[in-house]
Amino acid sequence: xxxxxxxxxxxxxxxxxxxxxxxxxxxxxxxxxxxxxxxxxxxxxxxxxxxxxxxxxxxxxxxxxxxxxxxxxxxxxxxxxxxxxxxxxxxxxxxxxxxxxxxxxxxxxxxxxxxxxxxxxxxxxxxxxxxxxxxxxxxxxxxxxxxxxxxxxxxxxxxxxxxxxxxxxxxxxxxxxxxxxxxxxxxxxxx
Length: 191
Hints:
- This protein is α/β, with parallel strands linked by helices.
- The chain has a single domain (17-189), classed as Rossmann fold (3-Layer(aba) Sandwich).
- Helix content is 32%, strand content 31%.
- The protein contains six helices and seven strands.
- It has helices at 2-11, 18-29, 46-53, 65-74, 107-120, 149-155; strands spanning 36-40, 57-62, 78-82, 93-98, 121-132, 160-172, 178-189.
- It has a seven-stranded mixed beta sheet with strand order 3-2-1-4-5-7-6, sandwiched between helices.
- It is globular and about 40 Å long.
């Protein structure tokens, strides 16, 4: 597992994810000031860096030692939590970002993690990230979670679903391995 994540960190790139950029654009269009963001599975810090650049305070959560070292190097307004997000505590936040992170929660952990997301997202705040669908090549993995479109719509019930883009196509992983992706880009706002 460690080698796989080290390979990913080396290949992942620095550009922030589109769902984060979308959520930030919507937040800014409302004339709201930067607040507190939680970045679950923060990894290389690509999204955390963008949040900091835009004036947000960030709680960055990751279990991998290499990720924690990268995140701590960002300094400033970043608090790093060295823990798996399934077992981590994080504060109430104006934005919860989970770029390509939540599918890596085991099914027996996912509901607890999602309940924590719902409980800690402040009114008017946004969740953004990706969830994997049932046709994803990795879907047989028993230690990951895959959600259908109706399941995702139930997850955000009562929230405004601002973006739900479905991707169902062949592509590559960050490390260049061919893969069939079935995923959803999600941005949802709590009223």
